[in-house]
Design goal:
163 residues, mainly alpha, CGCAxxGCC_motif, C_GCAxxG_C_C family probable redox protein
Length: 163
């Protein structure tokens, strides 16, 4: 599951690595969602093609730069989904109840805990609200704040992948 870069490391070391890698991607111009997903792809063998990253692009800036749900949070959910998500949600109709029970009882709670931890830290999941105290969206303080959020979300994706 892990790539060489993350092997033989503690969860805390992996979280620190995710922090470092995600910040580097932000400095290179990747958007918030791309940073978190790409970091995760660097650390884990997600068995998905590299160009899957293009699916993350539109979520940046709070989905298409509308400043709605934070793109870093979306990136964390996408990243976690690569290892905790269902590989085949289809199955015989008679097994649908069991599939739904597994989804609601085992899968959703992991994602929900991660998102709740983010909301507890920031008081919101909305990009606009997270960015507002830093003034102009193009300002350096806002960008620095976003880099902190990106790093935190990358760390949590790793934390919950390891749980």
């Amino acid at each position: 599951m892990e790539k060489e870069i993350a092997k033989n490391k503690t969860v805390e070391e992996k979280m620190a690595l995710a922090d470092e890698i995600s910040r580097g991607y932000f400095r290179q111009g990747l958007n918030c969602t791309e940073c978190v997903l790409r970091t995760f792809m660097d650390m884990y063998d997600v068995e998905l093609p590299e160009d899957i990253l293009c699916m993350a692009t539109g979520f940046g800036g709070g989905i298409g730069h509308t400043k709605n749900i934070c793109g870093a949070i979306t990136g964390a959910v996408m990243a976690l989904g690569t290892v905790k998500g269902r590989r085949n949600p289809f199955g015989p109709k008679e097994e649908m109840g069991a599939r739904i029970q597994h989804l609601q009882g085992d899968i959703y709670p992991v994602f929900g805990k991660m998102v709740n931890e983010i909301e507890d830290k920031y008081g919101t999941l909305i990009c606009r609200e997270m960015s507002q105290p830093f003034g102009d969206f193009d300002s350096k303080p806002r960008k620095k704040n976003c880099m902190e959020i990106i790093a935190y979300c990358a760390q949590l994706a790793v934390k919950y992948a390891e749980s």
